[in-house]
Design a protein that fits this description.
By secondary structure, the protein is α/β, with parallel strands linked by helices. It has a domain at 29-46 and 67-162: P-loop containing nucleotide triphosphate hydrolases (Rossmann fold, 3-Layer(aba) Sandwich). Helices cover 32% and strands 25% of the residues. It has 5 helices and 7 strands. It has helices spanning 16-29, 46-57, 94-100, 102-107, 151-165, and strands spanning 8-13, 34-39, 71-75, 82-87, 112-116, 130-136, 142-147. It has a 7-stranded mixed sheet with strand order 1-7-6-2-5-4-3. Strand 3 (71-75) and strand 4 (82-87) form a beta hairpin. The model has no long low-confidence stretch (mean pLDDT 92). The chain binds adenosine-5'-triphosphate and magnesium ion (MG). Adenosine-5'-triphosphate is lined by residues 13, 15-16, 19, 40, 42-48, 65, 67, 89, 116, 140-142.
């Protein structure tokens, strides 16, 4: 058995801006339907990264912390597709997810979904999701782990790695 999960790579972000720029590189490479699951404690950098994804994807409005609404909908001019920015921090139980229709959102094959606090609903995260885990390393540094369980999504992550880091 390999020591490291083959569909994983890591990075140490040195600043909020760097985390946003990484998100933008990923956002620019996303296919029509993609799920990005963000995991990490309070202040770990999930929203900063999501904001970058929104920029790279082409959202008309900047993504903001959606903590008071479970889901925020964004659009882009190019093809009027939708990006859902979801935050499960306040979700109490599965009923809450049914109320706002998380499953329907994730099944919409034409939209991108970014889910903060995705570990609150692990059963909802599809196998082909891009999972990004954030750990606080120091005041301005965040350790980020990118992974997926899907070989197809891994190709997207490899393209992202090449775009962001040149390798
Ligand atoms: N390398 C870094 N990457 C991202 N954010 C950083 C970094 N260094 C410092 N920060 C700071 O950490 C905070 C991250 O906030 P952010 O809202 O992105 O966290 P979050 O994971 O979404 O938290 P929450 O669960 O409360 O929504 C910001 O204040 C940001 O300035
Ligand atoms: Mg957040």
């Amino acid at each position: 058995m390999p020591v490291l999960d083959p569909f994983t790579f890591e990075y140490l972000s040195h600043s909020e801006e760097q985390t946003q720029r990484l998100g933008a590189r990923l956002g620019a490479l996303l296919p029509a339907h993609a799920v990005i699951a963000l995991i990490g404690t309070l202040g770990a950098g999930k929203t900063q990264f999501a904001r970058g994804i929104g920029t790279g994807w082409g959202a008309q409005q900047p993504l903001r912390s959606p903590s008071f609404t479970l889901v925020q909908e964004h659009h882009r001019d190019r093809d009027n597709r939708t990006l859902y920015h979801i935050d499960l921090f306040r979700i109490e139980h599965n009923d809450g997810m049914q109320t706002f229709g998380l499953q329907e959102i994730l099944e919409d094959g034409q939209s991108v979904s970014i889910i903060e606090w995705a570990d609150r609903a692990p059963q909802m995260i599809p196998d082909d999701a891009i999972v990004v885990k954030f750990e606080l390393h120091s005041e301005s540094k965040r350790h980020m782990t990118f992974s997926t369980r899907s070989a197809a999504t891994w190709q997207i992550l490899l393209a992202f790695r090449k775009s962001a880091f040149g390798v």
